[in-house]
Amino acid sequence: MKGDVFMKKSVFFILLIMLIVFPVFAASEAEKEDGVYEIAYVLKSQAQPFWNHVRIGGMNFAKEHPDKINATLYFAKDDAAVEEGLAILENVLITEPDIIAMALINHETMSTMVDKAAAAGIPTVMVGDSVKRWTDAYNAEFLSYDYGGGEMAGEFLINYLIENNIPLEGKVAVHSALAGLISLQNRCNGFQDKVGELAPDIEFLEWVYSDCDPLKEVSFTQDQISAYGDELICIYLDAGPTLPAAVRVFAEQGVSDDICLIGWDSSPEAIVGLEEGQLKGLVLQDPYGIGYNCMDAAFKILEGEEVNKDNLMPTVIFTSEDIGTQEAKEFLDPTLREIK
């Protein structure tokens, strides 16, 4: 009798557990049958236009495929918020998305997160930066061709000097946004190497680092203009955060006809600088294309398609003559292309 009661209770509890668990399992299976992939899109902060444009590119691809992709966007309060970025990634791993498209926080910590994702069976796509020197566990990466962009800027400078009958001699200043960042080093090395190849009599000043601080950039620009006078023929900036500060100094001091200012990355201030002539050349990555291609690659990986692991996105250089067309406007300002 007691055995019969025990058996009945056991059957009751088993049925109860099945009623609780089975609907959850069925719902999970239904989600997979819908064919909607969960993609975690983890970017740096949206404080800089570049990363906002990366966001637009990736989210546009997702919005073009609403029946296939559900992309969830994550980002920290600013580019330097490493601990916050790591916490975001740790939480994303807990949610177990189908794939993670992630931007670099810093090389060491990001490579660790890529390894953790791989151990959990979650593929990763690197957005705009590389961890290949630290791990090969990522599935794909999309980077700007930074060295090539620097070379392009160097060739632009030489052509500008020749076209304006300026001797291929004098001093060139290089202003880097951050010390130790490989992408920025490549931009500066590419520029200096190409100028040295084409005009060996040009002298480079010691590089200075603004630490992404506009006030430092103002000080560097003003001091070098004052110190070197007519000998200074070019100031080259390798990143967008401090370019508006240099443009402002050029406008205030009226030196645009004497010194060639070349910078990287689009911003409203940079576009105005091109239009008004303070900025002669603007090297542009394709942040929209980086974001779009990363999301496309993530989708293809989930679909089992072949994807190139290492991808370099070409850069372009804009002058005032290039900014009148609608295509150029959308390249400079991808917010015009955003799917709402």
Can you offer a commentary on this structure?
The structure is a single chain. The chain is an alpha/beta fold and 340 residues long. It folds into 2 domains: 132 residues, Rossmann fold (3-Layer(aba) Sandwich); 139 residues, Response regulator (Rossmann fold, 3-Layer(aba) Sandwich). Helices cover 50% and strands 18% of the residues. The N terminus is likely disordered.
Unreliable sequence segments = 1-33
- CATH level 4 superfamily of the largest domain: Response regulator
Per the principal axes of the C-alpha atoms, what is the gross shape?
A: elongated
Quantity of strands, as a count: 13
State the name of the first-level CATH class of the largest domain.
Alpha Beta
* Average pLDDT for all residues: 87
If helices are DSSP runs of H or I spanning 4 or more residues, what is the number of helices? 11
How is the main sheet built?
Answer: 7 strands, mixed
Helix content: 40-55%
What Rg, in angstroms, do the CA atoms define? 25 Å
State the separation between the terminal residues, measured CA to CA.
68 Å
Number of domains: 2
- The oligomeric status of these chains comes to single chain
CATH architecture of the largest domain: 3-Layer(aba) Sandwich
Q: Spell out the helices and strands N to C.
A: HEHEHEHEEHEHEEHEHEHEHEEH
Helix/strand structural class:
alpha/beta
Sheet-strand content, in percent, reads: 15-25%
Q: Could you please say which CATH topology of the largest domain applies here? A: Rossmann fold
Describe what is shown at a glance:
The chain has helices at residues 2-34, 49-64, 82-95, 107-119, 146-163, 182-198, 214-228, 243-253, 268-276, 287-302, 326-332, and strands at 37-43, 69-75, 99-103, 124-127, 140-144, 170-176, 202-204, 208-209, 232-237, 260-264, 281-284, 310-313, 316-318. It has 340 residues and is of the alpha/beta class. Strands 6, 7, 8, 9, 10, 11 and 13 form a seven-stranded mixed β-sheet that branches. It has a six-stranded parallel β-sheet with strand order 2-1-3-4-5-12, sandwiched between helices.
